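Lay summary. Proteins are chains of building blocks that fold into shapes, and those shapes determine what they do. In this project we predict the shape from the chain. Here is one chain we studied, written as its sequence of building blocks.
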Amino acid sequence: MSAFASPSMSAVGAARAQVWRKSVFVRVLGAAGSLLLSATALSIVVRLVAGEANGLVAGNVAGVAILAAGAVAVWCFAFRPMLEADDQGIRIRNVFGGHRLRWDEIREFRTDQLGLKFRRVDGKPMVGASVFATTYFQVPLPPQLPFAPHDRRAERAAEYLRQWSAGSRPDDAMLLPTDADRRRSKLTNGVFAAGAVLYGLAELYDRLA
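And here is the predicted shape, written in a compact code that computers can read:
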């Protein structure tokens, strides 16, 4: 399982479409994080209603708003992004908005930490697919790090789509992760999981203290 994007196959008429979404791990982590933030916001609301909240009412209301916004943002990051390709072109759904491009509208495929980007033939601004994004900020981590954001998943997808845009359906085997990618994914998943567990334990301790 990849840490950030997982491809799947779906039938579209007589042809098959290639679909990329965030991996199951990221979606589970996103759901858990969103529920945790929502539960924390709900507990503050309950204490406000019961008159047991600490601090000013305005501060608690602001805290609830921030937690609620965070829960929505985490959920959208984990579940909204999608990239679908078929014989006609690609369909992109990002956290905000989406695009549909025909193969003959795409001039170049590029990758970076913000995902897979498509340069248009007509010169309009590039379109990005955030399903491969490992961060929404340009963090200059060296690629040698085992958990560095930039790896070859998006690059394999770019080469796959590049071949498809040239007129031939590529071999799906080229999307399979290498042993190095699997090791990197396990380490990345472990880092994320450990962070989530530590945050949950800290929240539980704060509630019980």
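What the prediction tells us: Residues 136-150 have pLDDT under 50 and may be disordered.
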